[in-house]
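Hey, I was hoping to borrow your eyes for a little while. I've been puzzling over a protein and I'd love to understand its fold better. The fold is given in discrete form, as structure tokens running alongside the sequence. I'd be grateful if you could look everything over and explain what you see. No rush at all, and the record is pasted right below.
>
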Amino acid sequence: KGVTWAILTNFTEIRLLNAQRSQPFITLGYDDYLNSFEKLWLLSKESIANNFLNKEAAQYSIIPHAIPIEEKLFKQLRQWREALYNELLHYNSKWLKQEQRDEVIEKLINRLIFIRTAEDRHLEENKLRSAVHLWENNKHKNGELSTALREIFAYYNGYYDSELFAPHLLDDKRLAIDEYLITDILNGLYDIPGIMASYDFSVIDADVLGRVYEQYLGYVSKHIIEKAKEAQVRIALGGTADTDYKLVEKKQHRKEQGIYYTPKFVTDYIVKETVGHFIEENRHDNYNRILNMKILDPACGSGSFLIRAYDELLKFHADVRSKATTEMDKFDRMPILTGNIFGVDLDQQAVEIARLNLLLRGLAKRDHLPPLTDNIKQGNSLISGTDVELKGYFGDNWRDKHPFNWDYEFKYIMANGGFDVVIGNPPYVRIQSLPRDEADYFRSHFESAYGSFDLYVLFIEQAIKLLKDGGKLGLITSGKFLKSDYGKKIQEIIQEQCTVESIIDLSVQQVFAEATTYPVIITMQKGATKKPLNYVFIPNDSLQPPDITAIPPVTTEQDAITKGVWPLLATDKNLFDKLSCNAKPLGDIAERIFQGLVTSADKIYILEKRSESANDKIRVYSRSLAKEVELEKALLKPLLMGNDIERYQYPAPAYFLLFAYKVSDDKADLVTEQEFVSSYPLCWKYLLNNRKALENRENGKMKNDRWYAYVYPKSLTLHDKPKLLTGVLAKKSRFTSDSEGIFYFMGGGNAGGYGITLKSTTKEKPLYILGLLNSSLLDFNLKKISSPFRGGFFSYAQRYIERLPIRQIDFDNPTEKAMHDKLVSLVEKMLELNKKLAPIRDVFSHEKVKLVKEIEKTDKEIDNLVYTLYGLTEEDIKIVEGK
């Protein structure tokens, strides 16, 4: 029950026990109270409120590491499943297929949990424990316990009439499972191992059971051969290898499917904001609409959202009938389950578990229960079509995709306009992880399948399609679609078709223990209006779990979805107003902010630097040929990767780029074959050795006389210009200067970089702008508008850095001009200090320590000067520096 301490007393003696220990921590007789008052005082209100009891117990190691109840239950489930699988493998393999073994195990465990819940709710006697006792009293008579279990299942089938207990392979008399194992499982569902407490399934929240089952679904049966050497010896001697099945975590299983358990505070909030608001809007004048409302989770997992939605509806109907929810009978409860609650999931096990959890929630007394096969269904919520169409995409095995035809499966609902409420936590799966046939299908069927999209954006689009006009949608999903290029289309769909009611930004919270997804909770109504959008940012130092309702929202316009400009916290607004005063966005003063090169054949064009040779040649290592080659220096450009671009540092590239172009007058011409042969024969020979691979790029697109050109020849004329540089991903701003236009750099994805060239009309010097961009102030600004990544990294892509406010200088004002020149001088000093630091490899070098201190001092001077330039107060500076 989650209770840590218990006190037993008969008034002559008090015993204090911890739930995870079998011996009392304190034992006091009534005549010990005065002599041992300090022990008695540990039970006082003041002691408990100040955690003194736990602190005292910890000193004596009385309190072990607390293991949550769901972890204990999950560990047992895992062990039982493993043992059951081996039983079914060794003794039933002749008539049970592998998939049937999994099905039998799942059905058994689901039935047992249902029975234990019915027992602990006092709807049934403890039939399972009684069966074990009878078997033990009869001296473990062979087959007796298995027969008793089948009889109990038949009894439940007769009374509850649910598909859970319908005749199944599990009930087949041929099924052989060791009865000692059955005993361990049945006893284990009563007594918690290692502590004196027992499971009470009547108070184990559905949230806990949901978490257990989500973990449970993340494990698969895997065939392993133990003691391989011994097995090989036995095989050599004519024997057979002992095989055993262990349940092991398939590490990529959850990641590949994008499945992450949703915390309770999230389900509570989303259901309240959607189902709850729907009820309130219709409570007084449209009661029938509530009676007939249709609620969907299109990726329902174990059913946590649907359980919470059921609870919300049950409470409403109880209030209407002036009853407590515990007084609601079958005729009150079952119409909600069968008439209002619907879900779909790709995983059949999840479907079975969601049905079980909902039945458990609806169970009030011993009575017939409805089958939920028409409510919770297996299928791929994103794939549908005719047999011919699906075969064209997926081949003869198209049924393996489990296509789901919404108009057929939920015919009545879709014919009446769709669902009233859609809620859930869609899976997060990048397109790069999808099979090619699925990616092709999605691109042709979803407007939101744009760029390097993620599966969750398709779920948002599908949810909008499935909603009635005026229907409500509530999801927890990655917020990256609000800031990333791939979110462009889904942003447009939302703005055109919906009114976003609220966005709760949880991007700095670790909501899902297994994943960094930068989540947001988004609620919306189908139908576009100009109603203000409520935005709430949950800071990193908030309570865990955060109290979403405690932070007042700030409002903004609906077009914030497409503009990506979100309102600031009240503490930040005044600061950002100061930043924009006398400033222009970097994008306005830049001639170009351009991405690095994309060759589509990096293994060929990118060459590792080895050594310079005589006659203007360079030895390089080619990954495509797996050897060193000598090439003409004239066509090799110093090449930077994103990680080579460091803050205020002169880059030292380890690579060259084979650049088969001649640049002049802002025009890049491909070097001709004749020029190669006459002037660059080594480079030409190298390209010829890679010709086949180069021609086959982009599915053979390059099979022409320009076969050695870059597929995406963008920005070719910009790399040899003076520029500022930044990598795409960084934890802190790391801009630097290429004042001579020496370096070429890579683009593409998060490993590349961006270059910034300035307009000729820009009066401020490039190093002044470099100082601003590397300052703590503008980096603070960027992190407020940028997209976060795993590990504390942020995106420094064009769409973010172009919005950074660059303080304009009035050069007729001597004070401002002096500050401009001072900042330029400090930046020059930083560049020089870092240039001296770069070649020092000895970490403990006195010179290195001295230089590092000088760099830190100069960096701080730059920050202070920038604060002055933008007019910041001491309070503003504390906000920027997080003090």
Observations:
- The first strand starts at residue 5 and ends at 9.
- The two ends are 41 Å apart (CA to CA).
- The mean pLDDT is 86.
- Residues 433 and 662 are 38 Å apart (CA to CA).
